[in-house]
Amino acid sequence: MKEYDVVTIGAGGAAYPAAFKLKRSGYNVIMIDKKGVMSGNCLSEGCVPSKAIIESVHKYNTLKGILDLKVDYKKIVDHKDSVQRLRYSDHDRELGEADLKIIKGTGRLVDENTVEVDTGTGIERYHADNIIIATGADTFIPNIKGSELAVTSRDFYSMDPKIKSVPESITIIGGGYIGVETGSFLSILGSRVTIIEMLDRILESMETDIIDKLIPLLPRMDVKTSSEVKSIEKFNDKLKVLLNDGEIVSDMVMMAAGRHPVLPEGLDDLGIKYTKHGINVNMSMQTNIKNIYATGDVNGITPLFHAAKRQSIIAANNIMAGNVPVDYFDPISVPFTLYTIPQLAYVGILPAQAERLGIEHYEATYDMKKDSLAEINNEVYGEITLVFDKRMKIIGGYVIGNDAGNIINEIALCVSRGLSLRDLAEMSHQHPMSFEGLDSAARKFY
């Protein structure tokens, strides 16, 4: 049996930040990953490739009224692939420089200090003082007759993907962020998009008042809510989706019904607690066995790559403290961006949540119609809204429109560090940048 200080099951964003930090601190670390590369789903088929496509389409959408442009979707896919290859190359170099190793295989927990790995050619065992479970999440495929006829996000975003042309029409099953983001860019490229959502609205996990502001700004998509999919079947050279209230025929069907945690084998034998949403952890990322941590999507707290990286570092810090918690995760200050066109981003406590919690709060808003960069980018719509309490402390905020995914990070910093509205009011943001909207909104109260 091979001896290590720390074994990570997974080599994505929930694992490798901890591995690098621990290695620099003198720990002997090994990562185990079924793909055998450092990336996780974010690089292989998630946030990086999807945004490579979406950002290309976003730029096209911005410039099509100014320049005579035509889109070659295959070239956009080629660009996406080149970005993925570059990122994989960067990761390989980083691994070499850090003298870190990844074992390709599937890890199984044997006991509190042992991980067994099926490499495909044999079984190996690794003993470690500490274990980090970072196995991520995967596409959820509901039990629907004919579901094998549908494509998934993997078919759009993986390296050398199955889909390299824009379908004339597509039915997307699921109105969450993956379905709406994909439908958004496909609609701009000319596809007739229908989104099927079984709940009474799309983007159900996000605040209704904010989503109601975004929806009128989205590209044209036919949205059917409160509709249950019964089956998918072939219909001549197309596909038919049968619903509880009708049917839809289209060239392609995409399954975007959410994601589920990938749980390693051995949890039950060890008595590690978990639910269908993920492994139970405290805010120090410890399971109920203090030397076994679960970070990233597998714990279901905040299933975002940047949250996974932060959780990974928290696990490393607490391992170095002898499994005595010294670092904690703060989910409130983690920003989220919906990469539709236009974007929506938010962080912290938003107005409706503040109402539910009984928090006295106020809002400072900046209209993007007055923004110089929004005008330059031909995106004169949306807003920046700061949410603050009676102490004038910023507790949350959201951005719709131009550069939302960037602006939200500064609001997140304010939430994380307890900054006040005055702090933003006195900040000289660069002109002409949409960040100016932050101090413009704050100055309404100073």
Automatic annotation (TrEMBL):
Record InterPro entries: Class-I_Pyr_Nuc-Dis_Oxidored, FAD/NAD-bd_sf, FAD/NAD-binding_dom, FAD/NAD-linked_Rdtase_dimer_sf, Pyr_nuc-diS_OxRdtase, Pyr_nucl-diS_OxRdtase_dimer
GO biological process: 2-oxoglutarate metabolic process
Entries under Pfam families matching the protein: Pyr_redox_2, Pyr_redox_dim
An example molecular function term from Gene Ontology annotations: flavin adenine dinucleotide binding
Keyword Heme: no
Residues forming coiled coils: none
Family matches, as PANTHER family: DIHYDROLIPOYL DEHYDROGENASE, MITOCHONDRIAL, DISULFIDE OXIDOREDUCTASE
Family per record: Belongs to the class-I pyridine nucleotide-disulfide oxidoreductase family.
Listed name of the protein: Dihydrolipoamide dehydrogenase
Organism, scientific name: Picrophilus torridus (strain ATCC 700027 / DSM 9790 / JCM 10055 / NBRC 100828 / KAW 2/3)
